[in-house]
Design brief:
It is a single chain. The protein has no helices and eleven strands. Helix content is 0%, strand content 49%. By secondary structure, it is mainly beta.
Length: 124
């Protein structure tokens, strides 16, 4: 199983980035997908989650209204569109896949598959 995240980079505050995570080795359409992030010296935190068919989504309060998660099951890819970025969004962003039966995931506990992450740095 591989989760390959891409799209990170250096961006100025109020700018935008789109992250992608392409999955192989599992039945993507049967997996809940999530994005998590970890800043230096901080705990990993939930960012966004999307159900297997894209019908349900969930966001951390800190990103609600600025970030959008969506998926294309025909491409085995989940995306995170990030707008109006802030310096506090700077972190390593990782995608996760879970087929444990949950509709959405907020907790990293029990998630089965993780990607290596892509770095997002927002300069103020």
């Amino acid at each position: 199983v591989q989760l390959q995240a891409s799209g990170g980079g250096l961006v100025q505050a109020e700018g935008s980035l789109r992250l992608s995570c392409t999955v192989s080795g599992l039945d993507f359409s049967r997996n809940v997908m999530g994005w998590f992030r970890q800043a230096p010296g901080k705990e990993r935190e939930f960012v966004a989650s999307i159900s297997w068919n894209g019908g349900s989504t969930d966001y951390a309060d800190s990103v609600k209204g600025r970030f959008t998660i969506f998926r294309d099951n025909s491409k085995n890819t989940v995306y995170l569109q990030m707008n109006n970025l802030k310096s506090e969004d700077t972190a390593l962003y990782s995608c996760a896949a879970d087929s444990g039966g949950r509709l959405l995931v907020r907790s990293a506990n029990g998630i089965q598959h993780w990607g290596k992450g892509t770095q997002v740095t927002v300069s103020s």
